[in-house]
Amino acid sequence: MLNHTTKEDITVLHAELVDDETIVVKVQIDDNIGMVWLRCWEPFIVPATYSPYRLEILVELSNYIEIEEKTFRNQFENMRMKILTFG
Fold this sequence. Notes:
Blueprint: E1 10-19, E2 22-29, E3 32-39, E4 42-46, H1 54-68, H2 73-86
Antiparallel strand pairs: 1-2, 2-3, 3-4
Helix pairs in contact: 1-2
């Protein structure tokens, strides 16, 4: 998915539920690959350098979870709502 401001391409390569409150996501932005953490109790994307891409990351992660039939959809939806509301 393209970032509407920077025109950078954002892709979720992999995601895993680390514990009941944390999802770790491997994200590619153009040619750079990094890790992003989503937590139930922290309504932000960590590290903060990825915050400008939060909407694209959340959309891509939602698509990834659906396509890969991951079992942590409920945890993700809870985190997503907090990030969109408070982050």
